[in-house]
Amino acid sequence: MELRASSSSAMILTTRFLALFLSLGFQVVHAATTAQTKAFTCANGQTVSNSVCCALFPIIDDLQENLFDGGECGEEVHESLRLTFHDAIGFSNALHFTGGADGSIVTFADVELGFHANIGIDEIVDTQLPFIAAHNATLSTGDFIQFAGAVGVSNCPGAPRLNFLLGRPEAKEASPDFLVPEPFNTTDMILSRFADAGFDSDEIVALLVSHSIAAADHVDPTIPGTPFDSTPEIMDSQFFIEVQLRGTLFPGTAGNQGEVESDVEGEMRLQSDSELARDPRTACEWQSLMTDHTKLQQVFKAAMLKLSILGHNENDLVDCSDVIPIPPPLPSNAGPHLPPNTTLKDIQAACAATPFPHLTALPGPSTSISPVPPS
User: Fold this and answer.
1) Which residues are catalytic?
2) What is the chain's mean pLDDT, rounded?
3) Is there a binding annotation on residue 236?
4) Of 101, 160, 278, 288, which is the most buried if we count CB atoms within 10 A?
5) What is the separation, in whole angstroms, between the first and last Cα of the chain?
6) Residue 249 lies in a domain
7) Plant heme peroxidase family profile domain: which residues (predicted)?
8) Is 211 assigned a ligand-binding role in the annotation?
9) Cα 77–Cα 87–Cα 217 angle in degrees, nearest 5
10) Is there a binding annotation on residue 116?
11) Which domain holds residue 66?
12) Is pLDDT of 168 > 80?
């Protein structure tokens, strides 16, 4: 009996100890979780997960009012987004060059703006320089380029809320030439260049979501501001649909090298886009974005995050994504469609694994797409 009583007492003590241990463990886990999600209230009343991010709100106000024309998804947004790529893609495992998203395209503008692939980038660099100088106490040059891109994209209906990480050091040297892909590069060349920077074929397609709010000024200088799809003011899937229309490749001559004739008047096709849409390595991923806007947003956001921290250790940066404005949703009348007076017979489907989605054309006569006006 004594033995049984002793065993029972031991069991009770053990049970109580285990309960106390689990209770304390829960408190520790709860405290850690609370610490991770602790919010700081900034002077403007906004809450952020890290207090250093508070300094970014006045910069957003400056950019929206003075760079992005009061919050428009216009030319300066397009060019700022383009600049994020041209700066960050200066990264090469093969060359052991790990500059990446470091602002070298501005810091060493005398070198990098002379690269053929960077023709026209000088315009947005000149526009951003006063802002970079005004805010360099908070943002390095590399930080500013990625921050301006994320804030600008937030003005575009249908876009995802992009991430922004703070703390990139200043660039130490210029990027080597030939790291920025060009419209006349073959698909093999483009896939190889991106693989060297750590991107697979699906991620290349994801980054090209940027072309849904893009326009060309220098591919053919005779027609500046020519958009790549019929809805350059919103981030939707029309770019992926309309590039799949049949077109005629121009000869590679000066002035239109890398350009493909479009079946939609007023639009421009890039040779690289046209070929990526039809290459078996990228065609199915390309087609998958046509009717899945949620996926389009998700893959673009993920690819842009990866691009924006090229050359950096993510753990060395501060996540200030919660300061980026939330973009407007797609307009209620937006949706994947064929251009007026076209049918599925005008589509050159290229994905062998799945049928091309059943799309109908917008009603009404064909109209020419207007150029994107300069700021």
Assistant:
1) 86
2) 87
3) yes
4) 101
5) 93
6) yes
7) 81-324
8) yes
9) 50
10) no
11) 50-346
12) yes
Q: How far apart are CA 126 and CA 107, in angstroms?
A: 12
d(C-alpha 234, C-alpha 370), whole Å: 14
Asked, for residue 91, whether it belongs to a domain, the answer is yes
Q: What is the pTM assigned to this prediction? A: 0.85
The candidate with the shortest Cα–Cα distance to 84, out of 180, 204, 221, is 180
- The annotation status of 229 as a binding-site residue, yes or no, is yes
Query: Is residue 38 included in any domain, yes or no?
Result: no
Long-range contacts from 71-76, C-beta under 8 angstroms, 24+ separation: 71/155, 72/155, 73/152, 73/155, 73/156, 73/157, 73/213, 73/233, 73/234, 74/233, 74/372, 74/373, 74/375, 75/215, 75/225, 75/372, 75/373, 75/374, 75/375, 76/124, 76/127, 76/152, 76/375
In a domain, 326, yes or no: yes
| 20-27 LR contacts (CB < 8 Å, sep 24+) | none
Q: Which residue has the tokens 């315009």?
A: 123
Nearest to 116 by CA among 59, 208, 160, 182: 182
Look up tokens 């304390």; give the residue: 24
Residue 122 known to bind ligand: no
Based on the number of CB atoms within 10 Å of its own CB, is 210 exposed (0-12), middle (13-18) or buried (19 or more)?
A: buried
Q: What is the pLDDT of residues 235-278, one digit of tens each?
A: 999 999 999 998 744 444 334 556 555 567 778 889 999 999 99
Look at the chain and report how many structural domains it folds into.
1
The mean pLDDT value for 102-129 works out to 97
Q: Residue 261 forms beta bridges with which residues?
A: 248
Residue 215 scores a pLDDT above 90: no
- Assess contact for 343 and 359: CB atoms under 8 A: no
Query: What's the CATH number where 215 sits?
Result: 1.10.520.10
Q: Residue 226 — pLDDT band, cuts 50, 70, 90?
A: confident
